[in-house]
């Protein structure tokens, strides 16, 4: 089966400010270094790692929010790395992003109807029954009161605001949903509700989800596969349970050791694996 989204040898370099001289080029910082992964339709691939590991930059490269230094990104077999104009606009429709801070991505001066239907206006897509009706339908799909479409973002809680962000992303029927730390700013109980919502929507729509997170407890709940990143590189990739129960890389084991143990069977599996490594 061909991958819905495939990244191959992605590299992203940023110039280091103040390092360029009259005869010397600016030094460069490599934020992403030869990263490759595949995402299937209906699958959730979690990119995990500490802050500064390069996972969010990787997500931005994969969604064409920033340009690659080298490497390629394929969407359903098509190389989208250098697309521009109308072709890139279509990529924007197929790959939508849900950001970490829901309020920073919602215009505080716009009503929810305007916010949710913004991608449809940008894509010049029809809105049967009008913008308000479309927004109400999307509000209902993400578990919000459809009669609240005339409110402003400040009138919602953090969890509700993130649901609005998800509704906006769903408006254009994406094939890939990129969630960049989409639940990290929320309370634990709200996190669980958003994760359940994403899983339900994925079952209904069949989209692939690239889920960026540093919280392994959250990743365990939602991921199908896991790619562990550190220092801009992927050091381990595998099925979720295999990575969690039988981590191969030392960095992965350190990440898991730092997670509070809530499930006894998870802790028991970790200890058994640790004993095998020592022996």
Protein architecture, described:
With 279 residues, the chain is of the alpha/beta class. The protein has a single domain (5-278), classed as Rossmann fold (3-Layer(aba) Sandwich), CATH 3.40.50.300. It has helices at residues 55-62, 85-94, 112-122, 131-141, 158-170, 188-205, 216-222, 240-245, 250-257, 264-278; strands at 5-15, 28-39, 44-48, 70-75, 78-79, 95-98, 176-180, 208-213, 225-230, 233-239. It is globular and about 60 Å long.
Strand share of the residues?
15-25%
- In total, the number of domains comes to 1
Strand order of the largest sheet: 6-7-8-3-9-10
Query: Helix fraction?
Result: 25-40%
**Low-confidence region ranges:** none
The CATH class name reads: Alpha Beta
Average predicted confidence as pLDDT:
91
Terminal CA distance reads 39 Å
Categorize the overall geometry.
Answer: globular
Gross CATH architecture: 3-Layer(aba) Sandwich
Number of helices: 10
> How many runs of DSSP E, i.e. beta strands?
10
Structural class, from secondary structure content?
alpha/beta
User: Superfamily at the CATH H level?
Assistant: P-loop containing nucleotide triphosphate hydrolases
Biggest beta sheet attributes: 6 strands, mixed
């Amino acid at each position: 089966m061909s991958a819905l989204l495939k990244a191959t040898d992605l590299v992203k370099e940023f110039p280091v400010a103040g390092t360029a001289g009259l005869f010397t080029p600016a030094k460069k910082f490599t934020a992403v270094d030869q990263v490759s992964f595949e995402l299937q339709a209906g699958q959730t691939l979690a990119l995990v790692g500490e802050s500064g590991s390069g996972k969010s930059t990787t997500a931005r490269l994969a969604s064409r929010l920033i340009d690659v230094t080298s490497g390629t990104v394929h969407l359903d077999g098509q190389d989208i790395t250098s697309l521009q104009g109308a072709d890139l606009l279509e990529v924007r429709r197929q790959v939508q992003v849900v950001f970490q801070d829901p309020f920073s991505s919602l215009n505080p001066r716009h009503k929810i109807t305007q916010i949710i239907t913004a991608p449809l206006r940008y894509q010049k897509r029809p809105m049967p029954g009008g913008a308000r009706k479309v927004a109400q339908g999307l509000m209902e799909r993400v578990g919000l009161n459809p009669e609240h479409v005339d409110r402003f973002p400040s009138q919602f809680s953090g969890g509700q605001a993130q649901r609005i962000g998800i509704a906006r992303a769903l408006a254009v029927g994406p094939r890939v949903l990129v969630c960049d730390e989409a639940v990290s700013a929320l309370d634990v109980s709200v996190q669980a509700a958003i994760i359940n919502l994403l899983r339900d929507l994925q079952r209904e729509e069949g989209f692939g989800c690239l889920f960026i997170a540093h919280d392994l407890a959250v990743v365990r709940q939602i991921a199908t596969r896991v790619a562990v990143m550190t220092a801009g590189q992927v050091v381990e990739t595998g099925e979720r349970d295999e990575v969690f129960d039988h981590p191969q890389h030392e960095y992965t084991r350190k990440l898991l050791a730092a997670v509070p143990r809530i499930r006894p069977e998870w802790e028991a599996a970790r200890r058994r694996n640790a004993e095998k490594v020592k022996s």
